[in-house]
């Protein structure tokens, strides 16, 4: 009985072995995938808060734990006195309607003066207050720089100022104008006068050191400047993107 050897035909070639994936390639692929996933989650989170009010922020949460609770009452923008939004913009970011998240003119001026004060826009502060933490670390600044244009792209300006006014700190443990208005003046956010709104805006840079109800000479002077600024940006159209 004869046996036949199975031989490969001339046209048949052996299958090549799959190339071996090195450890470096595995790590690179994993990092790339993690970066894509992280980016997608950030986009979804930013998009979510365009429609859903942020329940808290990193800093607000830490203050709540430290103090045993905070005062906060979310108020839609259409239930906040329009002069409050104008006052905040006049005090913190007069070109709010004209930039895409970064005020390059203010940044250049701050660099020339050797100071960071005045360079941070309302959009940047909103990103910091909602998504990040307070501090001067380069990691936080880099994340803020990356997320700010995304927020500007996905949120309208009215949403940015609405969220800002509801997460900004106005006193120790007092967050947002919905809590600040009754805390300082015994009125609702809708009932704020031009002077009261300007005083609240005047304490924003240092809410734990300044008082809207017991203003120092500096705060009174700053209030007058903000009232003038709020009237100016309304007249020249720089409040058009959020003013009702």
How would you portray this structure in words?
This protein is mainly alpha-helical. It has a three-stranded mixed beta sheet, with helices on one face. The mean pLDDT is 89. Helix 9 crosses helix 10. It contains ten helices and three strands. Strand 2 and strand 3 form a beta hairpin.
Number of strands: 3
Distance between the termini: 100 Å
Strand order of the largest sheet: 1-3-2
Q: Which percent band covers the strand fraction?
A: under 5%
User: Radius of gyration in whole Å, from Cα?
Assistant: 27 Å
From the spread of the alpha carbons, the general shape counts as elongated
List the secondary-structure elements in sequence, H or E: HHEHHHHHEEHHH
Can you describe this structure in just a few lines?
With 244 residues, the chain is an all-alpha fold.
Salient structural properties:
244 residues; mainly alpha; three-stranded mixed sheet; 10 helices; elongated
What's the structural blueprint in terms of helices and strands?
Elements: H1 23-51, H2 58-67, E1 71-72, H3 82-92, H4 104-113, H5 122-131, H6 138-154, H7 157-167, E2 169-171, E3 174-175, H8 177-185, H9 194-202, H10 217-235
């Amino acid at each position: 009985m004869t046996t036949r050897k199975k031989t490969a035909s001339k046209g048949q070639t052996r299958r090549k072995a799959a190339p071996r994936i090195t450890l470096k390639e595995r790590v690179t692929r994993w990092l790339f995938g993690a970066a894509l996933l992280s980016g997608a989650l950030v986009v979804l989170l930013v998009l979510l808060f365009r429609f859903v009010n942020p329940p808290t922020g990193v800093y607000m949460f830490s203050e709540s734990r430290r103090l045993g609770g905070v005062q906060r009452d979310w108020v839609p923008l259409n239930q906040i006195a329009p002069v409050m939004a104008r006052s905040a913009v006049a005090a913190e970011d007069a070109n709010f309607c004209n930039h895409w998240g970064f005020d390059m003119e203010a940044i250049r001026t701050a660099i020339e003066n050797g100071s960071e004060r005045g360079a941070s826009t309302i959009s940047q502060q909103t990103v910091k207050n909602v998504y990040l933490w307070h501090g001067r670390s380069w990691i936080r600044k880099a994340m803020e720089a990356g997320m700010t244009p995304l927020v500007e792209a996905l949120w309208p300006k009215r949403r940015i100022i609405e969220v800002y006014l509801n997460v900004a700190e106005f006193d120790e443990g007092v967050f947002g104008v919905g809590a600040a208005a009754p805390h300082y003046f015994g009125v609702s956010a809708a009932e704020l006068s031009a002077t009261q709104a300007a005083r609240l805006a005047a304490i924003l840079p240092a809410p734990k050191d300044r008082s809207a109800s017991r203003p120092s000479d500096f705060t009174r002077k700053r209030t007058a400047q903000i009232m003038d600024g709020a009237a100016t940006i309304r007249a020249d159209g720089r409040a058009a993107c959020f003013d009702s």
